[in-house]
Amino acid sequence: MRAVVIEKFGLRPEVRDLPAPSAPPGGVVLDVEATGLCRSDHHAFAGHDDSVTLPRVPGHEMVGRVAALGEGVRAVRVGDRVTTPFVEGCGRCRWCRQGAAQICPDQTQPGFTHDGSWAEQVVIRAADHNLVPVGEELPAEAVVTLGCRFATAYRALTARAGLRAGESVAVIGCGGVGLSAIMIAASLGARPIAVDIDPGALALAREHGAAVAVDSRGLDPAATAAAIVEAAGERPTASVEALGREATTDAALLALAPLGRHVQIGLYAEPPRLAIPRVISQELAVLGSHGMAAADYPGLLALVREGSLRPQDLVTRTLDLEQACKALVELGERAPAGVGVIRP
């Protein structure tokens, strides 16, 4: 099979011919229909994640068809069209049994712990526990980002922040996961406030549900927080940081209303120093969000199927594997607005 291979951290990957994979016990091989270009892929490529060993095929968002079954697989058949969370639980531990596979201590992650979906085929472990059937009616562009960006944002807003209709939520960083959060918040009847330094990203955010857009170019955290409050006319009761930068997390914390809830999605390259005194004085809640278990997908898929949430509208470019190699390097600079989808 053809696949993108990272041979050295930070060095542009190449498309290579690799042996086709076989299905492990309890797992499957998928023929990849489409896969996502996500900022987390760049973290793996740049060496920010110590779970990644080289060489490695990146890619953790996907939609595809079951091509081969390993021993013991019961829940799917060859030919089924499926997606999967990027965090895949073992299916045996107490966290998985409780429906919290996203924090499974024995989790696997395609593109990180083993070869991922920037290839013609990919292996998924513990298939009965991790595969999500998606049927034939949804286009690939509506499904592919459900593996990471939309699933992470959905759980961040619903299960972690407990976002309610009518509430204001500041979303800082309007890349793929930030735009996903804005679309989901709008579909839930909340009032999303988009914050970014890229006018193109802010325009997309307004187009897809943001009630207010804040251009934070040249602003420090305190000034960004003030701009959020001024533009929104109030302090938001919830916030999401989708970049993984100390300054933008501080801006979110400084903007929040007392008793507000902040959800951290963005991954930091270095451990941050944050505005903890305000967390204490205003009794803010700071919450992490690390994907979503397959068991929690029905609510998200229902929004997509009914049309109130349209992930496909964020897709701004379609790439082949060769183009994906270049795009992965460019994610370390400023990624183009919107979502990139790769067709292996």
Helix content: 25-40%
Count of discrete domains: 2
CATH superfamily of the largest domain: Medium-chain alcohol dehydrogenases, catalytic domain
Main beta sheet: 7 strands, mixed
Q: What fraction strand?
A: 15-25%
Structural class: alpha/beta
Which CATH architecture of the largest domain would you pick? Alpha-Beta Complex
Count up the helices. Answer: 12
For the residues shown, what is the average pLDDT? Answer: 95
Low-confidence stretches: none
Instruction: Name the overall outline.
Output: globular
As for the CATH topology of the largest domain, it is Quinone Oxidoreductase, Chain A, domain 1
How many strand units? 15
What is the CATH domain class of the largest domain? Answer: Alpha Beta
- Give the N-terminus to C-terminus distance in angstroms: 10 Å
InterPro entries: ADH-like_C, ADH-like_N, ADH_Zn_CS, ER, GroES-like_sf, NAD(P)-bd_dom_sf, Zn_alcohol_dh
Protein name: Alcohol dehydrogenase
Keywords: Metal-binding, Oxidoreductase, Zinc
Family: Belongs to the zinc-containing alcohol dehydrogenase family.
Verbal overview:
The protein is an alpha/beta fold and 344 residues long. It folds into 2 domains: 2-148 and 292-342, Medium-chain alcohol dehydrogenases, catalytic domain (Quinone Oxidoreductase, Chain A, domain 1); 150-288, Rossmann fold (3-Layer(aba) Sandwich), CATH 3.40.50.720. It is built from 12 helices and 15 strands. The strands form 3 sheets. Strands 3, 4, 5, 6, 7, 14 and 15 form a 7-stranded mixed sheet that branches. Helix 5 packs across helix 6 and helix 8 crosses helix 9 (246-255). The relative contact order is 0.16. The mean pLDDT is 95. This is Alcohol dehydrogenase. Its cofactor is Zn(2+).
